[in-house]
Amino acid sequence: MTDREWSELFRKVPEEAQNALLIGLHNGTNIAVQDFLRVDDRFLLLRGRIAGTSDTGQMFCLPYDKLLYCCVTRPLPENVIVQIFGELLHPLVDRGPLVEAEEPQPPTPAPEPAPVTPPALTPPPLSPSSAGTPGLASLRERLRAKLSGSSGESRKP
Question: Is 108 within the bounds of a domain?
Answer without folding.
Answer: no
